[in-house]
Design brief:
2 domains, Aspartate Aminotransferase, domain 1, alpha/beta, 40% helix, four-stranded antiparallel sheet, 446 residues, binds pyridoxal-5'-phosphate, Aspartate Aminotransferase, domain 2, globular
Length: 446
């Protein structure tokens, strides 16, 4: 005879949700706030939301590719079936050819082949998985100061410590990188350092590109300090194709001939369409298996259909054509923003300075020390009242940084990120005018 067990009633306290430590460390990404602000205040011109230009998205190109993809039943079924965890073979082969062309040297000279390529759901997924398989709470990741703030949020969620490396207008300073590593060594913390993350082209947020001569030096410094185990470089090349002046330099990965140290993250989000949310990476051999195993837990393969679409975009030359068009569109927007800054600040009383990027989507504004750009400061509020939004520099600096207002790229209190991607030239001019107007009232009493 079975006996019924009576379950006692539980109090509200006992039923409270017990979130994992990781969930408790995870905060809303600041960009969500800026996106919401822009939507909630239609009069506001947002220089904050990092959207690509809506008008030049590849609508016609995508339509044509889709027509072709769906015209033959067999190929269509292949694309509509599940794919593999590492990604569509043809896309991975074409990705190698694309990187080969970008680097201007044979893939075999750089130990690059399709077996080291993994397609992910945006490069963001790759950034997450790399961090997940390499880092335990308390491990140290070095990043540029400033650096891409969404990734710093990811690192915070994982529980990593994020330590800044000084930068100037030519990117991370190799000697300063060595000094940071030497300091960590002296305090016995070098064994905790596992990764240097670096957005090395037209950096989000500063617009700065790592100078060609510094690239092998950064690799050399990291390899030299890999005494307690390998320190990887996660080179994020999200904006690499968006070059408006000269040519983009070789990647740091291209100097890593055996491919043991550098993880190269690329994406279609900036060069084609973020709505397709697809990225690909070139990995050190030993990371391929562990990353695939973890990706198996995420989704056992990114959207197969989109990968077929993107393979066609590469193979038919539509991707290259589209990049050509984007360069023209963004070059004009960047010029409009730089000219507007020149006009607004040349005649005003605020000695602001800013970066002059040769590509990407961002300009970095550095104000005199007495200005406070932080979200809780008066300037941010005054800008909202004037109808303009920026990303305060405070979000772009890692928690452990010595960056100060007087540094070449300023510090967390006196800087801001301005985006020119998704606004027409006249709006960009108006936005800069409003910003300069807000700044003219002075540093404002805090
Ligand atoms: C520097 C950088 N890396 C990675 C990403 C992620 O892009 P996605 O996941 O769309 O490829 C972004 C997006 O803005 C970015 O700015």
């Amino acid at each position: 005879m079975s006996r019924r067990v009576r379950i006692p009633p539980v109090s509200a306290k006992e039923t409270s949700v017990r979130f994992s430590q990781r969930a408790q460390r995870t905060c809303e990404q600041p960009i969500a706030f800026f996106m919401k602000q822009a939507v909630a205040n239609p009069g506001l011109i947002s220089l904050a939301a990092g959207l690509v230009d809506t008008e030049s998205l590849p609508v016609e190109e995508t339509r044509e590719i889709l027509r072709g993809l769906l015209s033959a039943d067999g190929a269509a079924r292949h694309a509509l079936q599940y794919g593999t965890t590492d990604g569509y073979d043809r896309l991975r082969e074409l990705a190698v050819a694309h990187v080969e062309a970008l680097e201007g040297r044979p893939a075999s000279d750089m130990s690059i082949d399709p077996s080291r390529v993994i397609v992910t759901t945006g490069s963001q997924q790759l950034l997450y998985i790399v961090s997940d398989i390499l880092l335990d709470p308390g491990d140290i990741v070095l990043v540029g100061a400033p650096e891409y703030f969404v990734y710093m949020g990811t690192l915070e969620s994982i529980g990593a410590r994020v330590v800044g490396v000084p930068m100037d207008e030519q990117g991370i300073i190799p000697e300063a990188l060595s000094d940071v590593l030497a300091d960590l060594d002296r305090s016995g913390q070098l064994p905790l350092v596992k990764l240097l993350y670096y957005d090395s082209y037209y950096q989000n947020p500063s617009g700065v590109t790592s100078a060609p001569a510094r690239r092998p030096e950064i690799l050399e410094a990291v390899e030299r300090w890999s005494r307690h185990g390998r320190i990887f470089i996660l080179e994020d090349a999200a904006y690499r194709e968006l070059c408006y002046e000269g040519t983009s330099p070789r990647s740091i990965r291209s100097y890593d001939r055996s491919g043991r140290t550098v993880i190269l993250a690329q994406t279609f989000s900036k060069s084609f369409s973020p709505g397709l949310k697809t990225g690909y990476s070139i990995l050190p051999e030993e990371l391929v298996g562990p990353i695939l195993q973890q990706k198996g837990n995420h989704d056992f393969g990114s959207c197969n259909f989109v990968q077929h679409l993107l393979a066609e975009a590469f193979a038919t030359g539509r991707h290259a054509e589209h990049v050509g068009k984007l360069k023209r569109v963004y070059r004009a927007k960047l010029s409009a923003m730089l000219e507007a800054l020149e006009t607004a600040f040349a005649s005003g009383s605020v000695p602001a300075r800013w970066t002059r990027p040769q590509g990407g989507l961002y300009v970095w504004l550095v104000l005199p020390e007495e200005f406070d750009t932080r979200m809780k400061g008066p300037l941010f509020q005054r800008c909202i009242e004037k109808g303009v939004l920026y990303v305060p520099g405070e979000y772009c600096f890692p928690p452990e940084t010595n960056a100060s207002a007087a540094d070449p790229l300023g510090g967390p209190r006196n800087t801001m990120r301005l985006t020119f991607g998704n606004l027409p030239a006249e709006k960009l001019r108006e936005a800069i005018h409003r910003l300069a107007d807000a700044l003219e009232s002075g540093p404002a009493a805090s």
